[in-house]
Design brief:
The protein is 14% helix and 55% strand. It has 4 helices and 14 strands.
């Protein structure tokens, strides 16, 4: 039997990138095209937590801006790394994705004195609102506390939310905890992390903090 995949969220990390455009580099007469460097989860943390790499995707956003009467086109590529914990149900040919950790790397930029990446100033609750607005698999997002932790060695704020996520193939929802970090600087990029797991696992703050601390950026 060919294995299928039932995911807690389709492209859990991908939803982070939507609307979080940024860029860095040199502006030309026609505009500019820029890409972030991928941020990853360390092999040691993957071994300790049982999470493994699922996929890395790129999300390209095109924006136009006007300055001093000139219009320029900027193409920005964000990189999203997605890791998960899953159960292999071999007798059914199914891999059940149970929990997801996603890392968004998005470039920083200032062109002609103006910043074009809003993620640097977005609080976790604003990112959660953006997710709910643009990503239909996540609904009923409610803030449920916050704490300070480190993402890749940088201190930041993490907000925890309750939400309902749609199980794609099952066509039903499950109550989840959603953890979103505020952006941290990493080289020429900003990094934002997201963790999500069913509420029946209980609150897994220690695991979430371990995952966030294990982020690496070249």
């Amino acid at each position: 039997m060919r294995a299928t995949r039932r995911e807690l969220l389709v492209g859990a990390g991908g939803g982070l990138a939507v609307g979080l455009a940024g860029c860095t580099g040199q502006l030309t007469g026609d505009g500019a095209a820029f890409a972030a460097t991928e941020a990853t989860l360390s092999a040691g943390v993957q071994a300790d937590t049982g999470y493994s790499h699922h996929r890395t995707t790129e999300d390209t956003v095109v924006e136009e801006f006007e300055r001093f009467g000139f219009t320029r086109r900027i193409e920005v590529t964000n990189v999203i790394g997605e890791y998960d914990r899953a159960l292999e149900l071999e007798f059914l040919g199914v891999r059940l994705q149970a929990a997801v950790f996603a890392i968004l790397s998005t470039p920083q930029v200032r062109i002609l004195g103006r910043s074009f990446n809003p993620v640097a100033d977005m609080a976790p609750v604003e990112i959660a609102e953006l997710l709910q607005e643009r990503y239909e698999q996540i609904r009923d997002v409610q803030e449920d506390g916050s704490f300070e932790t480190r993402v890749g060695g940088e201190s930041t704020t993490v907000s925890r939310f309750t939400a309902n996520a749609r199980l794609v193939e099952a066509g039903r929802g499950v109550d989840v905890y959603l953890y979103i970090s505020a952006a941290v600087e990493a080289g020429d990029d900003y990094v934002v992390t997201l963790a999500i797991h069913p509420q029946f696992f209980g609150r897994r703050r220690e695991t979430v903090e371990t995952l966030m601390a294990g982020v690496e950026h070249a």
